[in-house]
Amino acid sequence: MNRNELAEEKSPDHTTQDYAISSGNEDDDNPHEDGGQLDNQSQDDTETKYKLVMSYVDSDDPDKALLLLEELVTTASKTLDQTNPLRLKYEHQLGKILSATGNPQRALGLLENVISIGTTTLGEEHLDLLRYKHDLANTYLSTGNIHAGVQLSESVVAIEERLLGQDHPYVSASKHELAMMYQVNDEHKRGIELLESVVAKLTEQVSEDHPKVINAMVDLAGIYRGDRQNRQAIRVLEKVVTLLDRTSHELYTRMEPHAELADRYLEDGQIAQMIALNERIVAEHEAGLAEERPRCLAALKGLAEAHRIQGRVDKAVELLNRVIAIQKRTLHDEHPALLKTRSLLSRVNDERGETDGKQN
């Protein structure tokens, strides 16, 4: 899990509104119902602070969120029983932030404890508990315990599918996550089968150029590649590119699948197609006055590599010099990216010298 996946509000696939089960939304629970009490003023204060935490999360400032949430959890541990819904909510969110900011081991203890208590007080089918389990599964992956993450995610999907039905959008989102876990666990065939079913289901429910479908297809291509089915990955990415080209998706988001397809073309030896696609990526970034973007620079480097492979070393050198000129406008002389490009240029120049020597 990364920093942009901290808040439920940030993930339209995983919101409590999607559920048709349980009325126990964790944001609506009364802390007086289960152990411990807060007076009205204290409850208002803590919820105000929690809203501030979530605003920090939404603005991608997890460090401030973490600092304030630590304070909330400490206060809750002193004033509320461990079964209190508010305390569980705060501890759960703290676990998510810890996992996303590089402290998954501590997050693991928090989330496992929250789920242990929640299983008893909320029940296996409670929407909040299912959400907690999703986050614990991702934390297991962060700590390298992939098998535990897969097992937990499989159990969540089974419960959701039984309660909500296979057509529910939350079930599709959970299956998508599980498919990606299969990929991490080198179970590519299972991941492909599951994600293909997700793509098919989503395509029935929304337009095929919907972001959910596009994202699932891009991930499916990634699993195909992991399974060494490069031609299948190309087939899927070509469809994605076609869909994106007829929509108005933002430039830098739209170009990512194009760049991935260019890489797959290179891997498959389709150099002409790779050159054409990378030239288009560069042209669109130039038109948007965005040639300094990493994706544009990567496309220029890709073009240099393609021309080098085809024996046009002078063209490769020209392109790499262009990359260096762009990088020097924004990076200091010792920046790793600039040094890497210079090293690449040096190797290509050496290759050109060897070629010239043979000709002479």
TrEMBL record:
Protein name per UniProt: Kinesin light chain
Keyword Repeat carried by entry: yes
Gene3D superfamilies: Tetratricopeptide repeat domain
Stored SUPFAM superfamilies: TPR-like
InterPro entries: TPR-like_helical_dom_sf
Region (Disordered): 1-46
Pfam families, sorted: TPR_10 (PF13374), TPR_12 (PF13424)
Classification of source organism: Eukaryota, Fungi, Dikarya, Ascomycota, Pezizomycotina
UniProt entry keywords in alphabetical sequence: Repeat, TPR repeat
Cell membrane found in the keyword field: no
Compositionally biased intervals (Basic and acidic residues): 1-16
